[in-house]
C-alpha cells in the first residue's frame, strides 16, 4: 500500500514505546463508559423526575368536577402532545389521500389551509400542538410539523388558517364572536368537557390520586363506564390543583394495551401570551382562500365538537340509538348497496372489503370495520351504525334499529 | 538525544500553547487548499444558486412553487422573503451534501496522512498523539462551520438578489423584523454546523481504523447513508431517537415563534454524545495503534 511500509516500521513502533496489550484494551473502556453513563442518564433521569406524586389535600370526585366547571383560565400558553392509536392499519399516503379526498368532496374547497381538512391529520399518530389563549376573542392553535407549521389564529372576528408548508391562507369570520368557540377541540380541557357531559348513572367517577403533569400538581379523575358492551375502558383526566384546568386526558380501551387517545400538556404557562402571537397578516406570495359562507365557521365547530360520535356524523342527520356509553350513531348514506366493498367497487372496493369483517343479522348483511375504540357497521342497504361499542353490541343495535 | 527521547519529552512536557495553534493553522490551510475541499465547497455554494433560480423561474408569472407541500422545507416561503432561501438551502444540503463533505474531510484526517506516509512525520514533532488527534478534530469541526457558512452566505446573496427582503413571516404566522431575521439565520447556521459534530467524530474514528484515506471516506459516507435509511424505516422507530441524523431538521424549529426548543436540545445533546463516544473511541484507537506509515 504505502511506499514507506518497510522494515523500519517495526522500529517506529518501538519508538512510540507502545503500551502493553492490556493497557491498550483499557483505553477502550473510555468510550464504553461514556455509552454506559449516557444510557444510565437516559434511563434514570425521567424516572427520578417522575418519582413521588404530590401531596394534595383530599378532594371528592364531585368537588373535583365542580372545580373543573368553575375553572376560568383566560390566559395560557403551552405545548400539548396528542397521541391517537386507533389500531388502524398504517396506510401511509393512501389513507391521507382518501381522507383528504373525502373531505374535499364534502366541502368543495381545496385549500390546504382549511381547518377541517387539516385536523383530520390528528386522527392518527403523535402530534405536537401549541395553544395560546388570551380571553375569549384571541386564541391560537398550532400544529407543529417537520419544518412546517399549521396555525389557526382567532383574533377578534377573524379566523385565519395558515399552512406554512404550502404557504396557503384560509380566512373566515367568526359569526358569533366571543360566545362561539372558533377553534376545534384540541386541548385536554375540550376533551374533558366532552367526557364530563357523559357522566350520568351509567358511569363511575372517582378521584384516583395525584400526579405531576407539565411540572404542575394535579388530581387524577377516573371515569369508568358501568355498562358492558362499550369498548371504552377508562378515561383519566389530570386536573391542575390550582386552576382546575384539565392538563391531561387519557382514554384507554377495555381491551387493554396502550391508550387509544392521549392529550396532555407537556408545558404550560398561565401568563398572558405576547400580543404579536395573535397578530396575523397573510405573507407576501401566499394564496388566500376566503370562506364563502360565513355561517359555515360555527357549523364546523359543532361538527367537530360533537365528541366521540361527532366525527361520525353524516349529512343525512344522524340518529342516536341507546344511551350512555353504549349509544350508537346511525345514519343512512342513501347509497343502496352500501360501500363498494364487493366486486362492484373494483380494486378499491375489494381493498376496503378486505379491511372489514362480514356480518349478518336480522338487519341483513353488512361489513364491520373495527378499530381499537370505534367500530362501525355498514350494511348492504346503505345504513351506517357506529359507536364506541363492541361488534356484538353494534349488531344488536342494528337489529333493534331495524 | 535519540528520537525516542524527543518523543518522550514531547509527550511529558506541554509545549507552548501557541504551538498547537500553529499546528491547527497549518492543518486548516492544508485542508482548505486541497482541490477536493474546494470542489466540495463549490458544490455546496451551487445548491442555493440552483434552488433560487429554479424558484424564481417557476414563480415568474406569480404562481407558487411546491404548492402541495412537496420539496424541501420552506421552499414555498422563498417568494415571501429571500431569507427563506437560506433555510431551504440548508434543509436541502443537510441530509446529504453537508455530511458527505464532512465525511470526506473527517475520513481523510488520519487515514489520509497514514496512506500518504506523512503521519509519522507529524508524530515526530513533539505533539503527542492526543494533541494531534484534537487538532485534527478541531480542523474537521472548523470545516463543518465553514461548509455551513458557505451554503448560508451563498443562499443569502442569491436570496437578496432574486427575492424581496424585509419583514418576514415565521412559519407560526407571526412577523419579525430584519435584525431578528438575520440573528435567527446565523443561529440556524450555527445549529446546522453543530448538527455535523456527530458525523465528524464518527468519520474521525473510522479514519483511525485504516491506513487508506479512500476507505475511510467511503466507510463514513456509507455509514451516513445506512443510518439515514434506518432512520426512515417505521419498524425501527424505537432505535431512531438515538441515530445522529434523527433530529437534524429540528433547526427549522428556530423559525417558530416562540422557538420550540425540545428537539433542538435533543439534537445538540445527541451530537455531543456521538462526539464523546466516537471521539474517545478514536483516541483509544489512535493512541494505542502501531503507526507504521
UniProtKB/TrEMBL annotation, chain A:
Gene3D superfamilies: Lipoprotein localisation LolA/LolB/LppX
InterPro entries reported for this sequence: LolA/LolB/LppX (IPR029046), MucB/RseB_N (IPR033434), Sporulation_related (IPR052944)
Start-end of Gly residues biased regions: 306-316
Region (Disordered), start-end ranges: 1-24, 168-188, 281-316
Pfam families per record: MucB_RseB
Record domain MucB/RseB N-terminal: where: 129-256
Regions crossing the membrane: 28-49
Domain of life, source organism: Bacteria
Keywords associated with the record: Membrane, Transmembrane, Transmembrane helix
Residue ranges with Basic and acidic residues bias: 287-305
Protein name: MucB/RseB N-terminal domain-containing protein
The species this protein was found in: Streptomyces capoamus
UniProtKB/TrEMBL annotation, chain B:
Annotated TM spans: 38-57, 78-98, 140-164, 185-206, 212-230
Identification of the protein by name: ABC transporter permease
The entry's keywords: Membrane, Transmembrane, Transmembrane helix
Keyword Endoplasmic reticulum: no
Organism: Streptomyces capoamus
Amino acid at each position: 500500500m504505502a511506499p514507506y511500509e518497510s522494515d523500519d516500521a517495526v522500529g517506529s513502533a518501538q519508538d512510540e514505546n507502545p503500551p502493553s496489550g492490556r493497557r491498550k484494551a483499557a483505553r477502550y473502556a473510555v468510550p464504553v463508559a461514556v455509552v454506559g453513563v449516557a444510557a444510565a442518564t437516559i434511563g434514570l433521569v425521567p424516572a427520578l423526575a417522575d418519582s413521588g406524586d404530590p401531596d394534595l389535600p383530599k378532594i371528592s370526585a364531585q368537588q373535583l368536577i365542580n372545580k373543573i366547571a368553575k375553572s376560568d383560565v383566560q390566559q395560557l400558553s403551552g405545548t400539548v402532545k396528542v397521541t391517537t392509536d386507533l389500531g388502524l392499519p398504517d396506510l401511509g399516503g393512501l389513507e391521507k389521500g382518501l381522507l383528504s379526498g373525502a373531505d374535499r368532496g364534502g366541502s368543495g374547497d381545496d385549500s390546504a389551509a382549511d381547518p377541517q381538512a387539516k385536523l383530520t391529520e390528528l386522527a392518527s399518530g403523535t402530534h405536537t400542538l401549541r395553544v395560546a389563549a388570551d380571553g375569549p376573542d384571541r386564541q391560537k392553535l398550532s400544529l407543529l410539523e417537520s419544518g412546517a407549521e399549521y396555525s389557526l389564529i382567532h383574533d377578534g372576528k377573524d379566523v385565519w388558517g395558515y399552512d406554512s408548508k404550502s404557504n396557503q391562507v384560509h380566512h373566515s369570520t367568526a359569526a358569533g364572536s366571543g360566545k362561539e368557540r372558533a377553534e376545534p377541540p384540541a386541548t385536554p380541557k375540550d376533551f374533558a368537557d366532552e367526557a364530563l357531559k357523559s357522566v350520568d348513572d351509567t358511569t363511575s367517577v372517582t378521584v384516583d390520586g395525584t400526579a405531576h403533569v407539565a411540572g404542575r400538581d394535579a388530581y387524577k379523575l377516573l371515569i369508568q363506564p358501568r355498562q358492558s358492551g362499550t369498548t371504552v375502558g377508562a378515561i383519566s383526566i389530570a386536573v391542575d390543583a390550582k386552576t382546575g384546568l384539565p392538563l391531561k386526558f387519557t382514554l384507554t380501551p377495555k381491551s387493554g394495551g396502550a391508550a387509544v387517545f392521549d392529550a396532555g400538556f407537556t408545558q404550560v404557562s398561565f401568563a398572558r401570551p405576547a400580543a404579536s402571537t395573535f397578530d396575523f397578516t397573510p405573507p407576501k406570495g401566499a394564496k388566500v382562500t376566503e370562506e364563502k359562507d360565513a355561517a359555515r365557521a360555527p357549523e364546523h365547530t359543532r361538527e367537530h365538537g360533537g365528541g366521540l360520535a361527532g366525527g361520525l356524523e353524516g349529512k343525512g342527520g344522524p340518529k342516536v340509538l341507546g344511551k350512555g356509553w353504549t349509544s350508537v350513531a346511525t345514519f343512512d348514506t342513501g347509497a343502496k348497496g352500501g360501500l363498494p366493498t364487493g366486486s362492484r367497487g373494483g380494486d378499491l372496493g375489494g381493498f376496503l372489503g378486505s379491511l372489514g369483517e362480514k356480518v349478518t343479522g336480522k338487519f341483513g348483511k353488512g361489513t364491520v370495520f373495527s378499530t381499537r375504540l370505534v367500530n362501525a357497521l355498514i350494511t348492504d342497504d346503505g345504513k351506517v351504525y357506529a359507536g364506541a361499542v363492541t361488534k356484538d353490541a353494534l349488531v344488536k343495535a342494528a337489529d333493534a334499529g331495524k | 538525544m535519540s528520537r525516542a527521547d524527543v518523543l518522550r519529552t514531547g509527550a511529558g512536557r506541554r509545549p507552548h500553547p501557541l504551538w498547537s495553534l500553529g499546528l491547527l493553522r497549518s492543518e486548516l490551510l492544508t485542508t482548505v487548499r486541497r482541490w477536493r475541499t474546494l470542489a466540495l465547497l463549490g458544490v455546496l455554494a451551487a445548491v442555493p444558486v440552483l434552488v433560487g433560480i429554479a424558484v424564481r423561474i417557476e414563480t415568474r408569472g406569480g404562481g407558487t412553487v411546491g404548492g402541495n407541500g412537496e420539496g424541501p422545507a420552506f421552499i414555498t416561503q422563498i417568494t415571501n422573503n429571500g431569507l427563506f432561501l437560506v433555510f431551504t438551502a440548508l434543509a436541502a444540503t443537510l441530509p446529504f451534501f453537508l455530511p458527505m463533505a464532512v465525511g470526506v474531510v473527517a475520513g481523510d484526517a488520519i487515514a489520509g496522512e497514514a496512506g500518504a506516509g506523512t503521519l509519522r512525520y507529524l508524530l515526530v514533532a513533539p505533539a503527542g498523539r492526543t494533541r494531534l488527534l484534537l487538532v485534527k478534530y478541531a480542523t474537521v469541526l472548523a470545516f463543518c462551520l465553514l461548509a455551513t457558512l458557505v451554503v448560508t452566505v451563498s443562499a443569502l446573496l442569491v436570496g437578496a438578489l432574486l427575492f424581496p427582503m424585509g419583514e418576514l413571516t415565521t412559519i407560526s404566522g407571526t412577523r419579525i423584523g430584519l435584525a431578528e431575521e438575520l440573528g435567527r439565520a446565523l443561529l440556524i447556521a450555527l445549529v446546522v454546523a453543530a448538527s455535523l459534530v456527530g458525523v465528524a467524530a464518527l468519520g474521525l474514528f473510522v479514519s483511525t481504523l485504516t491506513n487508506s484515506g479512500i476507505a475511510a471516506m467511503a466507510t463514513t459516507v456509507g455509514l451516513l447513508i445506512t443510518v439515514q435509511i434506518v432512520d426512515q424505516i417505521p419498524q425501527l422507530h424505537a432505535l431512531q431517537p438515538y441515530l445522529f441524523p434523527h433530529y437534524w431538521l429540528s433547526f427549522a424549529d428556530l423559525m417558530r415563534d416562540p422557538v420550540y426548543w425540545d428537539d433542538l436540545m435533543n439534537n445538540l445533546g445527541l451530537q455531543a454524545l456521538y462526539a464523546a463516544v466516537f471521539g474517545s473511541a478514536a483516541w483509544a484507537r489512535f493512541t494505542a495503534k502501531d503507526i507504521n506509515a
